[in-house]
Design goal:
alpha+beta; Alkaline Phosphatase, subunit A; Immunoglobulin-like; 2 domains; 8-stranded mixed sheet; 4-stranded antiparallel sheet; 25% helix; binds calcium ion
């Protein structure tokens, strides 16, 4: 506590000093937006003294604390997309780890709008919207939209190699951010989006999860980690089936040491991210910028950490959706600092940034919190809509749900359950959410009101989405897949040893092209055994033995996926020849564009250029005949 006071006194001195240096009274404020990762509200020492977060505490002391700060979807990728866009996920529909912010959406993201308005912008740390395995790099890692980019995909390693040296990621982020602040011309405002990777877990023993900043030490905790009241078997067994069968793994009942070790780890990491806040603030003070820099601190989602006996987030319980949320605006009188009870959402922080910068953003669902900062009695949201409905390739089912929360009541509706599962909690009398009232007859009327409110929100956003549907997995997964053979080679869906085999290929036409597609396949020696060309009118010209029928689109449209089925037979013979298949636009159809046409055959992630799929057909012998070739937009049309 003494060091906390000392820090406050020191800050006072620095603030006075920097006030003397203050230039340009009428300049737009700078913005530093700290976003931590998976940090529940309780992981700050002014909330739970077991933790060690002096700089978060100092922000809470000097700024405004939103004690009812929530995320409208509790998972990294979705919450971060919502923050970037200031929109609810029910509108932007980025509801998968595969989906990036589109180029069009990016134009209306807060950093891009700020940059257009003259701000110098930096993004550092975990960006985590979209993945380069499934979407273009320029969307998943949109470096060109920032003046300084040091961003990463999902869960970057805490250990980073920088100039041949193993460094702790946040240390590197701090250095880069501070240099950025120092180098920004004094007459230009800046925005630093500092996406701290802590305290998110990163895997098992030996993994980066275990890499700590070697230059950082914190005092040992006073005793064992606090155990939440709801971390009991009884609380776990009360959970609806939708949660118990989900990725929200049961952790109650495991050895106490497991919980202790986990909590000590997240305590350490939270303290390390806290240090970053202190270092950046010190740099602002040293540069004489502290009095004109608005600081925001929040987390992208909470974490159960044993509440109700489970781990993870995603669900709509308080520990999952409630996050630290603080805003420090040094331009406001000190008398306005303190707590606010009005609900504040992650997307409201985005709207607040736009308000601070004076940039209009009517397309955002977020509401600026500045009126509440300036007037503690200002009206806040009456209620708000939660939605977590995410497609994930990962193991374990995410507990998809939606619901409405107001000051007193919380209604949760689990999607995709049969029969429908619902929960109703009285947060005033049951803040730990231990008594589900959804089946109580005396709550039937209230339940219906909340159901209607939930339905109204859903209808509103469905309309806003304008018929667009969220991504629910790649189409390729629904088609017959090429199976791995015993030797590891890709096989046809039915072995050619039986005399027949079908090859399914899909590709994305990246530019428009005349309607011709050419297929060749060859044996190990790359001798062309048979090729076909499909012309715009659907005519198939064989170049070799075989009889084919085919229909081709008259024009391949740009950015459009096409499906191809090639039906082979080998006259019933078996053997060991390996065949390579190439799929490319027929030469006669190539436009005069000297760059040709780029074909990306998605089954192999083929290179750009003209050729492309490589599939091993095995076993294969003698003459292989392409009996049939079909081209279309949908598998259903050509199967
Ligand atoms: Ca997160």
């Amino acid at each position: 506590m003494r060091s906390f006071l000392k820090l406050l006194l020191l800050t006072g001195a620095l603030t006075t000093l920097s006030a003397l240096h203050a230039v340009a009274a009428e300049s737009r404020p700078n913005i530093v937006f700290f976003l931590s990762d998976d940090q529940p509200l309780r992981a700050m020492s002014h909330v739970d003294p077991w933790f060690h977060t002096p700089n978060m505490d100092r922000l809470a002391e000097e700024g405004v604390v939103f004690e009812n700060g929530f995320v409208e979807s509790s998972v990294c990728a979705v919450s971060r997309a919502s923050i970037m866009l200031g929109q609810q996920n029910a509108r932007h529909l980025i509801q998968s780890f595969d989906v990036p912010i589109s180029a069009e959406q990016m134009e209306k993201s807060f950093p891009v709008l700020l940059r257009k308005a003259g701000y110098r912008t930096a993004m550092l740390g975990k960006f985590a919207v979209g993945h380069t395995r499934y979407a273009p790099k320029e969307l998943c890692l949109p470096a060109e939209h920032f003046d300084l980019w040091y961003g990463f995909l999902q869960s970057p390693s805490y250990a980073q190699m920088v100039d041949g040296e193993k460094r702790y990621l946040t240390s590197v982020m701090e250095e880069k951010a501070i240099r950025f602040i120092e180098e920004t011309p004094k007459d230009q405002p800046f925005m630093v989006y500092m996406c701290l990777p802590e305290p998110h877990g990163q895997g098992g023993p030996g993994g980066p999860w275990n890499y700590r900043d070697p230059h950082f030490e914190i005092p040992a905790p006073d005793g064992p980690p606090p155990v939440l009241e709801t971390m009991t078997e009884a609380a776990y067994h009360q959970l609806p089936e939708a949660i118990r069968t989900s990725k929200n793994n049961k952790i109650v009942g495991r050895p106490a040491e497991t919980y202790t070790k986990y909590m000590e780890t997240v305590r350490d990491y939270t303290a390390r991210s806290d240090l970053a806040i202190g270092r950046i603030r010190a740099a602002l003070e040293a540069q004489g910028l502290a009095d004109n820099t608005v600081i925001i601190f929040a987390s992208d989602n909470g974490s159960m950490w044993g509440a109700h006996g489970i781990a993870g987030k995603w669900n709509m319980y308080e520990e999952s959706i409630r996050v630290p949320m603080m805003i420090y605006d040094p331009r406001l009188p000190k008398s306005l600092s303190g707590t606010r009870s009005q609900p504040a959402l992650n997307i409201d922080l985005t709207a607040t940034v736009m308000d601070v910068a004076g940039v209009p953003a009517p397309h955002m669902d977020g509401i600026s919190l500045m009126p509440i900062l300036k007037d503690p009695a200002a009206q806040g949201r009456e209620d708000w809509y939660y939605l977590h409905d995410v497609y994930s390739r990962g193991k374990g089912k995410l507990p998809n749900c939606e619901g409405v929360r107001n000051e007193r009541w919380k209604y949760i509706h689990y999607r995709d359950t049969d029969p429908i599962q619902e929960e109703l909690f009285d947060l005033q009398n049951d803040p730990k959410e231990m008594n589900d009232l959804a089946t109580g007859p005396e709550y039937a009327e209230l339940l219906n009101k909340l159901r209607a409110r939930n339905a109204a929100y859903k209808a509103y956003f469905d309309k806003a989405a304008g018929g667009r549907k969220p991504y629910r997995g790649p189409v390729e997964e629904k088609k017959p897949v090429l199976k791995k053979g015993a030797g590891g080679e890709q096989m046809l869906d039915s072995p050619l040893s039986l005399g027949r085999g079908n090859l399914f290929v899909s590709f994305l036409a990246q530019r428009a092209a005349g309607g011709a597609l050419k297929v060749e396949f060859s044996n190990q020696k790359k001798q062309v055994r048979l090729g076909v060309a499909v012309d715009a009118d659907g005519t198939v010209t064989p170049k070799g033995a075989g009889v084919m029928t085919a229909s081709a689109p008259s024009l391949f449209q740009a950015n459009t996926a096409y499906r191809v089925v090639l039906k082979f037979s080998n006259n019933g013979k078996t053997g060991g020849a390996v065949t390579r298949v190439k799929l490319f636009p027929a030469a006669g159809a190539l436009p005069s564009d000297p760059n040709g046409i780029d074909w990306d055959v998605s089954t192999t992630g083929g290179k750009t250029g003209v050729t492309q799929d490589r599939v091993l057909l095995k076993p294969l012998a003698g003459t292989v005949v392409l009996d049939e070739l079909r081209v279309g937009r949908n598998w259903a049309d050509i199967r």
